[in-house]
Amino acid sequence: MADTLRIALAQINTTHVGALHANADRIRAARAEGARLGADLVVTPEFSVGGYLPEDLVRKPAYVAACAEVIATLAAETADGGPGLIVGGPWADGDRLYNAAFLLEGGKIAARRAKHELPNYGVFDEKRVFDAGPVPGPIPFRGFRIGLMVCEDWWLPTCAETLCETGAEMLLSINGSPFEADKHDRQRLPLAVTRVVETGLPFVFLAQVGSQDEIVFDGASFVLNPDRSLAALLPSFAEDVRLTEWRREGDRLVCVPGAVVPPPDTLGQVYAAMTLGLRDYVNKNGFPGVVLGLSGGIDSAISAAVAVDALGPDRVQAVMMPSPYTSPESLEDAAKCARLLGIRYDTIGIGPAMDAFAGMLAPTFGNRPPDITEENLQSRIRGVTLMALSNKFGSMLLTTGNKSEMSTGYATIYGDMCGGYSVLKDVYKTMVFALCRWRNANLPAGALGPAGAVMPERVITKPPSAELRPDQKDQDSLPEYEVLDAILEGLIEGEKSVDALVAEGLDRATVLRVWKLLDRAEYKRRQAPPGVKITPRAFGRDRRYPITNGFTALVK
Ligand SMILES: Nc1ncnc2c1ncn2[C@@H]1O[C@H](COP(=O)(O)OP(=O)(O)OC[C@H]2O[C@@H]([n+]3cccc(C(=O)O)c3)[C@H](O)[C@@H]2O)[C@@H](O)[C@H]1O
Ligand SMILES: Nc1ncnc2c1ncn2[C@@H]1O[C@H](COP(=O)(O)OP(=O)(O)OP(=O)(O)O)[C@@H](O)[C@H]1O
Ligand SMILES: NC(=O)CC[C@H](N)C(=O)O
């Protein structure tokens, strides 16, 4: 009986959903690296061939057939005597379609395991497109019995328990686990410890890294030994192919302890997720870079910083678009921020367009006094201008609204909401302030931007203002951000009642006002660009509310 097994954990960015040949090349490179390290088995993440999350793409028979072809090719390549290979992808079996793991060994598909537990909550809808496989049994591999599971399988006890009872020597899960701040400490590690305690088996969590539309995969793969000690923790937000060595000790399989790379602190994780999300979105969709409006305010400053760290200064263009209400401080701060970041900075005044619209609309508006209409026009003129630059130069427009604004509708639809992607969509304003301070004090790993402060201090300390009329401040229209964000978190992430929030010390009238703002802004969010998921309840797939909602009027 063999006593040593070497498993390479390929924590890779499988290029993107549907890019099967590029994904296969990435898998091949990981297998070659595993072979170089002396691996017997190379493990790649959930749906590594097809790209994760495939959503309704799996309903296309052509996609499923193409995946099967690529998997067959990869299987044939394992006739070379090198390591076995675990990949993920769709498996059409008669009229059933599974999310499956495939063991490729000796030139063929040696085993398949269909995902048994299909996640159908949060961002997931797997019951809609996949059939559930049977509870898995262990797979024999070179003298060892491996308990292979596909992601959600290990989040519930049944599969691990059955694998243990049927003789598995280790639990090995391949994952596509979406990032949420602190998910490793808060959820994955404690749950993995539970599975180890329940079964007495070592546990491997092999995760993918990268981003697909709104979802970031943060990596942080790990191995737990039967005594619950952490034998390996791979980096967060970066690819890695790590060799793990397994030995039989009595009747147990144990992993030789290796490097443990803890995830960054919470702000570091959120910043890294925003950076990876934007980088992969822009690169996978083939944009040369991004353009954004730089107002001298905090939201556009941090968005620009993330863009520079994601793409490098040469791929980011900032545009200041002053109106008669733009303060000299904003002009100075925007220019200084662009200088600190080393990005191209253009100035395009919007006064002429404001005058043109005022003249065009005057006969129809008659003697109605100026109001929010004229404010929104400024925002829309900026949106049209930025989209013109995007059309002309091919860069994607980066939109800058944060979660506090998206929650309350404090943004102009077809105005500052214009754009292709957002890094702040799921970040509350209070966290925006903290992230700015964090970035000015830290150079994130892998960042393409400069070290040191990249946002002028005044951008962080001055009161937020949209500058759409003289002396306007956000707090003329909204509660203080500390109060607003506490209420929003309670209503959105907590689904709390008005009474529960009042019992926590919040003012009833303010809570009611925010509740109504939140409900009424649903129509804006449905038309908002996608953005990086950071919290357990991001707008979009994670939180699906009706637009037409009569319950709002009943809330007291
Ligand atoms: N249920 C519904 N379904 C579909 N459409 C609906 C709708 N309710 C209103 N609408 C439409 O939406 C329009 C109102 O929305 P919109 O035009 O956006 O305008 P509105 O929401 O009234 O105003 C925009 C708000 O955002 C603030 N703002 C603007 C720009 C930047 C910033 C900032 O600091 O970041 C803040 C601004 O001060 C103001 O409070 C209506 O005129 C109507 O056309
Ligand atoms: N004068 C300006 N020049 C360039 N872009 C602007 C200008 N004013 C607003 N924008 C764009 O519109 C977005 C919304 O701006 P606004 O100042 O109204 O609100 P904000 O949410 O406080 O954002 P910020 O903190 O970036 O100012 C900005 O982030 C920026 O991208
Ligand atoms: N892809 C999956 O099955 C992932 C589901 C799992 N609960 C997670 O969030 O990590």
Automatic annotation (TrEMBL):
Pathway membership: Cofactor biosynthesis; NAD(+) biosynthesis; NAD(+) from deamido-NAD(+) (L-Gln route): step 1/1
The keyword NAD is annotated on this UniProt entry: yes
Residues that, per the record, bind ATP: G293, L294, S295, G296, G297, I298, D299, S300, T400
Annotated GO CC locations: cytoplasm
Gene name, Swiss-Prot/TrEMBL: nadE
Membrane-spanning parts: none
Lineage, highest ranks first: Bacteria, Pseudomonadati, Pseudomonadota, Alphaproteobacteria, Acetobacterales
UniProt-recorded Gene Ontology molecular function terms: ATP binding; glutaminase activity; NAD+ synthase (glutamine-hydrolyzing) activity; NAD+ synthase activity
Protein name, as recorded: Glutamine-dependent NAD(+) synthetase
Similarity-based family: In the C-terminal section; belongs to the NAD synthetase family.
Keyword line: ATP-binding, Ligase, NAD, Nucleotide-binding
All copies of domain CN hydrolase, residue ranges: 5-248
